[in-house]
Amino acid sequence: MAEVLEAKKREDKHHSSSRRLRRNGYIPGVVYGYQTENTPVYVNDTEFEKLLRENGRNAVLSLNVNGTQRNVMVHEVQTDPLKNKIIHVDFLAVNMSEDVDATVRVVLTEESAGVKDGGVLQQALHELSITAKPDEIPDAITVDVSNLQVNENITVADIRGKYGFTINHEDTETICSVLPPRQEEEISTGEQQESGTPENLEGRETSEA
């Protein structure tokens, strides 16, 4: 059963009203989507952040706006980078029987065989775009890398079909790979050489003068 989040309809839509709401411990927002008119709302910041922390960004919530409940997902969150506080939230009303698009983080699990042999694990995709029913969207997609050897990779094709949703990426896209130690050292050395100054540069200029 979806967690209930209490919300109030926001009648005053001026910026000064939004600032006042934030000062008083509320987050201004808007709800729109399935059978829902664009409706400005506000929610308690502590309650919303707690639900977000415990259920994840892709959870279905039951938003109770002035006594009317509807199933919603968090569509967008705006954050003040200086205060690290949520300042606005968009709720998307959803039909539980229809597919929706969502972005889900990718979590690599276990230690790969290649890393045990000295290789370096590199993650290329940290998020995946998927299509699924609202209640079938996971908080994270876990990828087991325990069998991944040096110079091997895991692509989208390797995990497609393991889950009950559609992955909206090409099969050839690399999720992660294990680089050999030497290649990692060469990359590091190359970056240092590009950013540094040749040791004999000053002497060469002097001799040419």
UniProtKB/TrEMBL annotation:
Keywords: Ribonucleoprotein, Ribosomal protein, RNA-binding, rRNA-binding. One of its GO terms (biological process) is translation. This is one of the proteins that binds to the 5S RNA in the ribosome where it forms part of the central protuberance. GO terms for cellular component: cytosolic large ribosomal subunit. Part of the 50S ribosomal subunit; part of the 5S rRNA/L5/L18/L25 subcomplex. Contacts the 5S rRNA. Binds to the 5S rRNA independently of L5 and L18. It comes from the Bacteria. Residues 100-182 form the Large ribosomal subunit protein bL25 beta domain. The keyword Ribonucleoprotein applies. Residues 5-91 form the Large ribosomal subunit protein bL25 L25 domain. SUPFAM superfamilies: Ribosomal protein L25-like. GO terms for molecular function: 5S rRNA binding; structural constituent of ribosome. Residues 1-15 have a biased composition (Basic and acidic residues). Residues 1-20, 180-209 are annotated as: Disordered. InterPro entries: Rbsml_bL25/Gln-tRNA_synth_N (IPR020056), Ribosomal_bL25/Gln-tRNA_synth (IPR011035), Ribosomal_bL25_b-dom (IPR020057), Ribosomal_bL25_C (IPR037121), Ribosomal_bL25_long (IPR001021), Ribosomal_L25_dom (IPR029751), Ribosomal_uL5_bac-type (IPR020930). The keyword RNA-binding applies. Residues 189-198 have a biased composition (Polar residues). This is Large ribosomal subunit protein bL25.
